[in-house]
């Protein structure tokens, strides 16, 4: 290439590597086929990474929260920030526990941008015994995977039996069917699911 007097010419150097390491090499060029010059080139290649706003999430249902269904759901947002200079593609693995959900499961985060991921916990039918835990794993293309620890707890419901805890049928004739009712009072500000555990037949 010929450069006219007083003119400038720009050259583009393209670097690409699938190997994580630091590169140091020398670029050689000649002027007028005689004078040799050297240009030092340095490059540091890192794994694709996302900065996670929260890696430990705790879900808990409190009595002051009001639900319109017996299916209780809470969602917390997790921010994934791409601080690198290339796009980051992530793929979440399916949670091992059915109580937890993730949305979106896969997406691309552009450089110097972020995306909000919804992590949800659902207490199916409002019945959860103790604390449920899971580890949500996210895989990154050309990067290392990361995990988020999640746990969900449903506080025990408060049902009170109205009146006496003894149901009296008194004297009943053989072959005559009688019925009595008992009333349960929900002292929570949330819907509560219940079931009959056992029935005794005489």
CATH-assigned fold name of the domain at 51-154: Immunoglobulin-like
Shape: rod-shaped
Overall residue-averaged pLDDT value: 82
**How much helical structure, as a percent, in the residues?**
under 10%
The structural class is: mainly beta
What is the tally of helical segments?
0
Number of strands: 13
CATH superfamily of the domain at 51-154: Immunoglobulins
Low-confidence stretches: 64-70
Biggest sheet details: 5 strands, mixed
Q: Which radius of gyration do the C-alpha atoms yield?
A: 33 Å
How would you summarize this macromolecular structure in one to three sentences?
This protein is mostly beta strands and 202 residues long. The protein has strands spanning 22-31, 35-44, 51-52, 56-61, 72-81, 88-92, 100-103, 106-109, 114-123, 131-140, 146-154, 159-162, 183-186. It has a domain at 51-154: Immunoglobulin-like (Sandwich).
């Amino acid at each position: 290439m010929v450069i006219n007097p007083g003119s400038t010419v720009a050259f583009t150097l393209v670097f690409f590597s699938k190997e994580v390491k630091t590169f140091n090499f020398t670029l050689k060029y000649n002027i007028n086929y005689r004078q040799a010059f050297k240009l030092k080139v340095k490059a540091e290649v890192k794994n694709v990474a996302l900065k996670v706003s929260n890696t430990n999430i705790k879900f808990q249902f409190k009595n002051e929260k009001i639900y319109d269904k017996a299916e209780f759901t809470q969602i917390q947002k997790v921010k994934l920030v791409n601080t690198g200079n290339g796009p980051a593609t992530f793929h979440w693995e399916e949670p091992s526990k059915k109580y937890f959900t993730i949305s979106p499961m896969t997406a691309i985060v552009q450089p110097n941008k972020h995306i909000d991921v919804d992590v949800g916990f659902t207490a199916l039918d409002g019945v959860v015994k103790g604390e449920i835990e899971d580890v949500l794993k996210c895989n990154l293309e050309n990067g290392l995977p990361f995990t988020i620890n999640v746990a969900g707890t449903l506080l025990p419901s408060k049902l009170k039996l109205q009146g006496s805890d003894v149901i009296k049928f008194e004297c009943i004739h053989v072959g005559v069917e009688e019925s009595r009712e008992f009333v349960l009072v929900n002292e929570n500000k949330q819907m509560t699911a219940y079931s009959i555990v056992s029935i005794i037949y005489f």
